[in-house]
Specification:
The chain has 3 helices and 4 strands. The chain has a single domain, classed as von Willebrand factor, type A domain (Rossmann fold), CATH 3.40.50.410. Helix 1 packs antiparallel against helix 2. Helix 1 links the parallel strand 1 and strand 2. The protein is globular, with a radius of gyration of 14 Å.
């Protein structure tokens, strides 16, 4: 499995940001991720108006490394440019996806555009 986690740190997610981050950590805890194992490749992106690739898609990370990266993402506020984050995720996946793996995108805020979002 290739798993890309996308966390929205924009103004529209302020009231639920901690829940969003905790849910991502719980997802990682439940997956059979082991350091040095190639069954699950992970990547992490956070975004407001500008997306940030926190961990490029790669295999072999430990759960602790992934959880630490998620815990280091903080709420920032600002504009919501979901399309830029999804574009960055797709670019990273194109560079490193494994053709024998299922690609999964976890993004807590499923709507591509909400009333505070800008699709650019």
């Amino acid at each position: 499995m290739d798993l890309m986690i996308i966390l929205d740190a924009s103004t529209s997610r302020e009231s639920v940001f901690e829940q969003q981050r905790d849910l991502a950590v719980r997802l990682v805890e439940r997956l059979p991720i082991l350091a040095g194992d190639s069954r699950i490749s992970t990547g992490i992106i956070s975004f407001t108006s500008v997306p940030s690739l926190r961990q490029p898609m790669s295999v072999g990370r430990s759960k602790e490394m992934i959880e630490r990266t998620i815990s280091e993402i903080f709420y920032h506020g600002g504009s919501t440019f979901t399309s830029r984050a999804v574009g960055l995720a797709l670019d990273d996946l194109d560079r490193s996806k494994r053709h024998d793996a299922v690609q999964v995108y976890y993004h807590k805020h499923i709507r591509i555009q909400d009333y505070l979002s800008a699709c650019v």
